[in-house]
What we know:
The protein is of the alpha/beta class and 378 residues long. Helix content is 43%, strand content 11%. The chain is built from 13 helices and nine strands. The chain has helices at 11-23, 30-42, 54-64, 82-89, 109-115, 135-145, 192-201, 210-216, 234-268, 297-306, 322-327, 334-342, 354-376; strands spanning 49-51, 72-76, 93-97, 120-126, 148-152, 168-172, 185-189, 287-290, 343-346. Helix 6 (135-145) links the parallel strand 4 (120-126) and strand 5. The mean pLDDT is 96.
Amino acid sequence: MLLVSEPIVGEEEKAALADVIDSGWLTMGDRVRAFEQAFAEAHGAADSVAVNSCTAALHLILHALGLGPGDEVLVPALTFVATANCVLYVGATPVFVDIESADVPLMSLADAEARCTARTKAVILVHFAGYLPDREAWQAFARKRGLMLIEDAAHAPGLRQVGTFGEAAAFSFYGNKNMTTAEGGAVIARDAHLLETIRQARGHGMTSGTRQRLNARTPTYDVTMLGFNYRMNELQAAIGLVQLRKLTAWNEIRRALVAQYRRALAEYCPSVTAPFAQPRTSSFHIMPIVLPAGANRQEVIGKLRDNGIQTTIHYTPVHLMSLYRELFPAVRLPRTEDFAAREVTLPLHPRMDAGTVERVATTLARAVQAEATAEAVP
């Protein structure tokens, strides 16, 4: 089966893990700190904070910014549910915003403007599929409204523009991301005080960690804020240090594969569209396509699977999930709903090559043509 995403791990990662085990220090320590510094440098930032997931990263950002009950946060519904969940974690209210279009499935600035109220305090920009929104336009909007900008950069590691939009950016190193620590995440924040608040809050609000107390030869610590158990461990950081060295090259492979996909789709199945037709800064995390209106998506997915090609969907809109339908039953986002009903995510990862892309595109073309033929039969 050709998988949608496939982590690349090997002998270097094994050796890094063995070094951690041999060291006898498994919890947050020197490797986590080295990873934080290396990740920050890769993004042109002064520092970063490593945590155990992107969800933790987002929660810590919202918590450290003081968002809470009575506040509203603009979020896209075309995202993983964690984006909205983190708003609920701090007691604030997510306000779902439609996408711009099927070609640019990023949060619509016009719809965000329309959904602002006196209670709106922040915007979470999701870099869907790895593509970045218009930074200057969103910054102007935020300044005009007095809003905080937060980046959900789960799909966009390795881009130096990420982390420069507003208050902070949250990253994911889950197993299907451009680089992985198996589980894990990180925060970049340009304000040093905000970043240090996040750093302390990830470990129960304690004023020192175990490694720090060992080096300082004192067993005492204090708790000066509400905190959480969101730490990254040394095993994750060891993998991350190896993966980070390969990230730029892997992202370049992804870029080339996406260009090949666009050419092949235009040749073999022009009725299928690929979003982001115009050049835009991206880490090329996933390869979303949009099927023609009326196509039976499940049949297309089944035909691809029968030919050994896995696909998936990004995403079921959050406002249509049972929990959020109960909480916000009146939300309607027509562009998001239409896009999500026709989107299919094709395989995209650095183990692929041009021949693999050709195989996927030709198989997709046959599947779509079969559906069109079946639709035409009375």
